[in-house]
Write a structure and sequence with these properties.
Layout lengths: L5 E6 L5 H15 L3 E8 L12 H10 L3 H4 L2 E7 L2 H11 L4 E6 L9 H10 L3 E6 L8 E5 L4 H15 L7 E8 L12 H20 L8 E8 L3 H11 L4 E5 L13 H9 L4 E4 L6 H8 L3
Parallel strand pairs: 1-2, 1-4, 2-3, 4-5, 6-7, 6-9, 7-8, 9-10
Antiparallel strand pairs: 5-10
């Protein structure tokens, strides 16, 4: 939990802002965060859901929505700027560990999924996207893994959050989605046998992977799913197992503009009716941001 010492929640006239603030307060308490930034990003000249954006009035309203112990370490700001670029600039300049933003449900025609994809791709830190009307609960986490270092980081983050939940036996489910390719016919075995062989190899790979991870203190399970649609498989499992959050690692390449999320994580984020926490290695995209936004 030491990973999230500086949190930033971005308010942008979404109906999910209240639940985003609630998640911010809960995570700040669980992580014992040192500082919290509540930032309203407002395009000059546009109408806003907050009728009075005078800094002091806005600050008072936001702080009143937070528990006193969180409010006392919270800074409230109003920024004029263009949506995602201003959020990214703020996250970089304040050296945030986690950005939190609310959104409408994916099926809502007023929702703009591409906005969150761009935000998550370029963010210099981890990002939590919280849909409107979701129930705030942090006891059951689903972590899609591909055995990479980034998925290990996501799994460890989910385990840390789960252990912080003292109200019940927490649960973490790791899921790997695999697909039987057309080439199986050349091996001389049938489809189901090819799938079984592939799953056996994945199970052995998982056994090596999980040795590096401490799963004590949680109800932990590993599930293999055979599917050609990874994001759909993740959402289906999250739904039937009544997960509270999906935690997925991002893949970044810090030395090039390819420091972006993988396509799978993007699709999971875009279509998810649950909160999605994208775990990133802090600073991987800073050089890219400096090029896009200009130096500090």
């Amino acid at each position: 939990m030491k990973r999230f010492k500086r949190l930033g929640v971005f308010l942008h006239d979404s109906p999910a802002e209240e639940i985003a603030l609630a998640y911010t307060a809960r995570l700040a308490a669980l992580a014992d965060s040192e500082s919290v930034f509540c930032i309203h990003v407002h395009d000059k000249g546009e109408e806003t859901a907050w009728p009075d954006l005078e800094p002091e009035n806005f600050k008072a309203r936001v702080l009143a929505m937070l528990p006193p112990e969180i409010a006392e370490r919270t800074t409230v700001e109003v920024h004029e700027g263009s949506g995602v670029p201003e959020m990214l600039r703020s996250a970089r300049d304040r050296e945030l560990d986690l950005m939190i933003v609310g959104r409408r449900l994916p099926s809502n025609q007023m929702g703009i999924g591409s906005t969150f994809n761009r935000l998550a791709r370029k963010a210099p830190c981890s990002v939590l996207v919280v849909p409107n009307r979701v129930h705030l609960h942090l006891g059951r986490f689903l972590v899609p893994i591909d055995f990479s270092e980034h998925s290990k980081m996501a799994l460890e983050t989910a385990l840390a959050f789960a252990r912080s939940n003292s109200t019940e036996k927490p649960q973490v489910v790791a899921q790997t989605v695999y697909c039987v390719g057309y080439g199986y016919k050349k091996t001389g075995v049938g489809f189901h046998e090819a799938g079984r062989q592939l799953e056996d190899r994945i199970q052995k790979k998982f056994a090596r992977f999980i040795r590096q991870v401490d799963t004590d203190g949680v109800d932990f399970e590993f599930i293999c799913t055979c599917s050609e649609r990874t994001s759909a498989a993740v959402h289906d499992l999250a739904s039937v197992m009544k997960m509270d959050m999906i935690v997925v690692g991002s893949r970044g390449v810090s030395t090039s503009p390819a420091a972006l999320l993988g396509g799978t994580a993007e699709r999971i984020l875009c279509d998810s009716p649950l909160p999605v926490l994208l775990v990133k290695r802090k600073g991987e995209t800073v050089h890219l941001l400096d090029a896009l936004l200009g130096q500090k």
